[in-house]
Amino acid sequence: MKGWGLLLLSLHVISCLVSGVASGHTSSYVRTEFPSTDIPLESEWFAIPKGYNAPQQVHITQGDYDGKAVIVSWVTPEEPGPSEVFYGKKEKQYDQKSEGTTTNYTFYDYKSGYIHHCLVDGLEYNTKYYYKIGSGDSAREFWFETPPAIDPDASYTFGIIGDLGQTFNSLSTLQHYEKTGGQTVLFVGDLSYADRYKHDDGIRWDSWGRLVERSTAYQPWIWNAGNHEIEYRPDLGETSTFKPYLHRYMTPYLASKSSSPMWYAVRRASAHIIVLSSYSPFVKYTPQWWWLKNEFKRVDREKTPWLIVLMHSPMYNSNEAHYMEGESMRAAFEKWFVKYKVDLVFAGHVHAYERSYRISNVNYNITSGNRYPVPDKSAPVYITVGDGGNQEGLASSHKVWWCLRPWFELSSLMTPSRTTLHSGRPVTAIQFYN
Ligand SMILES: *[C@@H]1O[C@H](CO)[C@@H](O)[C@H](O)[C@H]1NC(C)=O
Ligand SMILES: *[C@@H]1O[C@H](CO)[C@@H](O)[C@H](O)[C@H]1NC(C)=O
Ligand SMILES: [Fe+2]
After folding, report:
1. What's the whole-model pTM score?
2. The one catalytic residue among 12, 322, 351, 422
3. How far from 353 is each of 317, 385, 396, CA to CA, in Å?
4. Which region is the signal sequence (predicted)?
5. Are the C-beta atoms of residues 212 and 175 closer than 8 Å to each other?
6. pLDDT band at 123 (very low <50, low <70, confident <90, very high)
7. How far apart are CA 192 and CA 88, in angstroms?
8. In sequence order, what are the residues at sequence separation of 6 or more whose Cβ sits closer than 8 angstroms to the Cβ of residue 253?
9. In what order do the strands lie in the sheet with 381-385?
C-alpha cells in the first residue's frame, strides 16, 4: 500500500472553487516511491546559497495569535552578521525594518552557525510583503502573504505534513504540496530525522533547512515537535531535550499565554489551531494541562468556527506501529476534545494514513469496564498523516483487518468531503495525496 504524503484542508464557507482545487474529490495523484535513504549531502537540493555568509535555511512561522505577524528565521554560517529583516509591500522597496536576535549551540562535536529569529509585526491582513535578509552581494529576497482577518467566513487552505525527513520521497511530498495552492502548513512533528546521525546531526539539520526553504521561506509552517526532535543523547553528553529544534524553530507561544514553545495556539482566518506536545508533561496539573484547559475557554466559535488540534502521536491508531502510544494523552485530554467539540485532530508519527469516525472513549475508566470507543456526535475526527517520506519508510501493517476495525473509515475509498463538522461549515475539500 502506498503511503499518504500530505493532506490539504480547505476551509470554505461558501461553495466556491479555489484555483487548482477540485472540491470534494480524492486526488488521483500517486506518489512515486524512492528508496528510503537520505538525499546525499552534496546534492543540489541542499545547495548552499552563493555569497559570503549568505543567509540560508530561511523559514517563517506565524508570530502572534491572530496572523498579523511573522517570525523570520535563518542561519548565517560564517559570522553572525546583521539580524535584520527589511520589508515592504512593493518589490525591492523595503521601507520597513525589524531587528531580531541571534543564537548558536553545540551538539556533540557539531557547532552551529548563527541562527537568527526576527519578529515582523504590525502587518496588514491579506497583503503580500516582500522581505530581504543578509547584506551586500549575499542578500536574499523572499515574500509572503498574510492571511485574511479572523472571520468566520474567511476561506483558507492548509497543508498537513508530518514526519517529513530528507529523502527523495520527502522532496516529492514537498514538490507536490507546492502544486496544491496550500497557504500554510500545519506540521505534525518529526522534521529532519537528523537524530539518526551521530556526527552529522547538526549537518543534517542544516541540509533539511535548505531543502525545505523553497516552501518555508514563503509561507508559514506551524511547527510541532515529534519524538525525533527530543534528541536526549546522554551517550553523546547531550542531556537537554529538544536542543537543536528549540534553537532553530520558533513558535509564538507567548501570544497564547503558553509557558513553553512546545505547546501553543494560533488563530488564522476561520480556524483556531491548538498545538500540543506529545513529549512534554501533559497529565493533570502540569503546565501543558493548565494551559490547554484555559486555551479551550478562549476559543470563540463565533469568530473561528474551525477548531483544530495538532499533536505528534495519534490518540487513535490501529497500526502496529506505535500502537497505544497516544493512549496517555487520550486519557488526559479526550474529555475536553468532546466537551469543546473539536472538529479535527491531526497527528503524525505513524507512517501511514488513517482517519476515524466520530468516536470517543470518554466513558472508559479503570473501573467502568466500557473499554470500547463508541460513536459520539460531539467527538472530533482523528486523522493520522505521518508518511511525509522520511528514511524509515512506510508503516503498512495494521493490528486488525479493515473490516474488523469499526472505528476507522476505509481511508482512500472514502472522502469526508462535504461532511459537516462541528464548525457547522461544510468542508468542500479535504484532499488526500498519496
Ligand atoms: C556562539 O558564537 C560565539 C561567537 O562566535 C562563540 O564565541 C561561542 O562559543 C558560540 N557558542 C556556542 C554555544 O557555540
Ligand atoms: C468510572 O466509571 C464508573 C462506572 O461507570 C463511574 O461510576 C465513575 O464515576 C467513573 N469515574 C470517573 C472518574 O469518571
Ligand atoms: Fe514520530
Report:
1. 0.90
2. 322
3. 10, 5, 9
4. 1-23
5. no
6. very high
7. 32
8. 259, 260, 261, 262, 263, 264
9. 264-268, 271-275, 306-310, 344-347, 381-385, 353-355
CA distance 227 to 243: 13
Residue 184 neighbours by CB distance under 10 Å: 25
Secondary structure, 3-state, 255-267 = HHCCCCCCCEEEE
Contact (CB, 8 A) for 419 and 427: yes
Q: For the chain, give the number of residues.
A: 434
Task: Clarify whether 322 is annotated catalytic.
Answer: yes
Instruction: Please tell me whether residue 399 adopts helix, strand or coil conformation.
Output: coil
β-partners of residue 373 are: none
CA of 127 to the centre of ligand 3 (A): 35
Question: Residues 81-99: what's their mean pLDDT?
Answer: 97
Q: Distance between CA atoms of 405 and 398, rounded to whole angstroms?
A: 10
C-beta 104 within 6 A of ligand 1: yes
Mean pLDDT to the nearest integer, 21-26 = 37
Residue linked to cell 528549540 = 246
CA distance 246 to 237: 18
Query: Which sign, positive or negative, has the C-alpha torsion 309, 314, 315, 318?
Result: positive
The two beta strands, 106-107 and 184-187, are unpaired
Q: Is the pLDDT of residue 13 over 70?
A: no
Pocket of ligand 2 (CB under 6 A): 365, 367-368
**Residue 98, strand partner residues:** 85
Distance CA 403, CA 411 (A): 12
Residue 80 CB-density burial (10 A; 0-12 exposed, 13-18 middle, 19+ buried): middle
* Strand pairing class (374-375; 359-360): antiparallel
Calculate the alpha carbon distances from 330 to 236, 304, 357, 373, 383 in Å.
33, 24, 16, 12, 14
| Rounded (5°) CA angle 226-289-307 | 75
pLDDT score, position 434: 32
Question: Tell me, what DSSP letter sits at residue 421?
Answer: -
Q: Ligand 1: does its nearest atom lie under 6 Å from the Cβ of 106?
A: yes
Q: Which of 104, 106, 238, 246 to mutate to test the pocket of ligand 1 (most atoms within 8 A of CB)?
A: 104
Query: Which position has the grid cell 552581494?
Result: 137
The residue whose CA has the least distance to atom 12 of ligand 2 is 365
Regarding the beta carbon of 105 and ligand 1, being less than 6 Å apart is answered yes
